[in-house]
Write a structure and sequence with these properties.
- This protein is α/β, with parallel strands linked by helices.
- It has a single domain, classed as Phosphatidylinositol (PI) phosphodiesterase (TIM Barrel, Alpha-Beta Barrel), CATH 3.20.20.
- Helix content is 27%, strand content 15%.
- The strands form four sheets. It has a four-stranded parallel β-sheet, with helices on one face.
- A hairpin with a 5-residue loop joins strand 3 and strand 4.
- Helix 1 runs parallel beside helix 3 and helix 9 crosses helix 10.
- The radius of gyration is 19 Å and the shape is globular.
- The protein binds SN-glycerol-3-phosphate (G3P) and calcium ion.
- The site of calcium ion (CA) has 3 residues, from loops.
Amino acid sequence: MRDAPLHPPIVIAHRGASGERPEHTIAAYTLAIEQGADFIEPDLVPTKDGVLVARHENNITDTTDVAAHPEFADRRTTRTIDGETMTGWFTEDFTLAELKTLRARERLPRLRPDNVRHDGRFEVPTLAEVIALAQQHTAKTGRRIGIYPETKHPGYFASIGLPIEPALVAQLNAAGWDDADAPVFIQSFEVENLKRLKGMTGVRLIQLIADQGAPADGSYPSYAAMTTPDALRRIAAYAWGIGPAKGLVQPGDGPVTTLVRDAHAAGLGVHPWTFRAENFFLPASLRRGDDPAAHGDLSAEIARFLDLGVDGVFSDFPYAAVRARDAARGRSPE
Ligand code: G3P
Ligand code: CA
């Protein structure tokens, strides 16, 4: 049965238009804006000198050309972050000036071979550059382009003296973005840093909920425990909404869960992730052919979720999300 969205559905460009450009680059964000995205999403990690930059993780081995820089060979190290041990190069070991000498690489070259032609072209952007981009395009287009930053590994970075939240809030304040009317959502998989942020800024906060595991700060025994009606009411005390993995709303072609309805009943908006065009990421009924890299019917998948009443979607392919959203508006009885 269809539920009504609490809010007009928004399109969030997940890591930019990352299906068509290497993720978290100004090129990916710019293309997303040109395709009609309402928000661009920078995941945030700090540099050694405390500057927030857009990377999905602080381990930059797979998404930059750092391994090809002999001057940084001795920075390769092994670290355990949120229980996961990995070897590579990490943003917290590089100053911003050093990081700016690197260039982005496509994360998924086998699924997104067309993007590989952009390897080596784009810098790692700072949060300041992402904010400026959103503001420039707002002025240029008359559309309000927002940002949807995610604090990555906030507990870990606080533990090494590089907390993300103060720098993030200071930059948002400097942009004039300090209340719930600002075109900003801050998201986190952790709970405690969102509760702290509630006391630091008035911008809207999003509690991310994954489909497996548990928050790294130990606040809940599992993400599953955060989806009960009681837990959702507790989340509503500090967050504007939730960002669940899409499988928590509808796993594949399976039955729809009560999560959207329960979240709305708690007063929470719902922004699920991540909607991707490749067959590899789509439910079986929406795949086209056998090639995992070929594109299936992403707009149909997004339409399903919009019909379930979600308040926005994260997509690597904002053009498809905009098309599905605009079509859904045409179907709306309002
Ligand atoms: O932020 C929503 C979604 O992006 C969370 O997953 O791993 O892509 O940052 P991830
Ligand atoms: Ca993210």
